[in-house]
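Entry 12.
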Amino acid sequence: MDTCYIETPLGHAKIVGDDNGIASVSILNPKEELSEVIPETLLDCATQLKAYFNNQIKTFDLNLNPEGTSFQKKVWNQLQRIPYGKTISYLDLSKQLGDIKAIRAVASANGKNPLWIIVPCHRVIGSDGSLTGYAGGLHRKQWLLNHESEYKQQTLF
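Predicted 3D structure (tokens):
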């Protein structure tokens, strides 16, 4: 597997993949040294991530190859159907997948999403509109939702 590190507004992102597709994209708290050369297998992913952060694209067109169970992959595929700038609840996601009782399993699969931003797990929120768990930290989830919102939230400080 090829690996590279790129700069994003939320920290350094680690991209892992090969000719079969992108296996994972993750955000790192400790600063990894940025890659001077991005492997050809990861170049399109790195380019699209930069375009996303620069408001040049709203969807990704990449060959994805994450590792996970068939149920996790089903959840991740459904996540990709959430439109840019929109959110849904875990309950709604469970309903879309056809089993309202699977809400905990859906939430667990959402939390194990290996493709940060590309599979937009940040667009899933609590039924009451609250921001709930996010592997990259709730501050990043809020940033991403603000980034995608047509109504930009201004800060007072």
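Annotation: The chain has a mean pLDDT of 92. Helices lie at 40-53, 70-79, 90-96, 103-111, 138-148.
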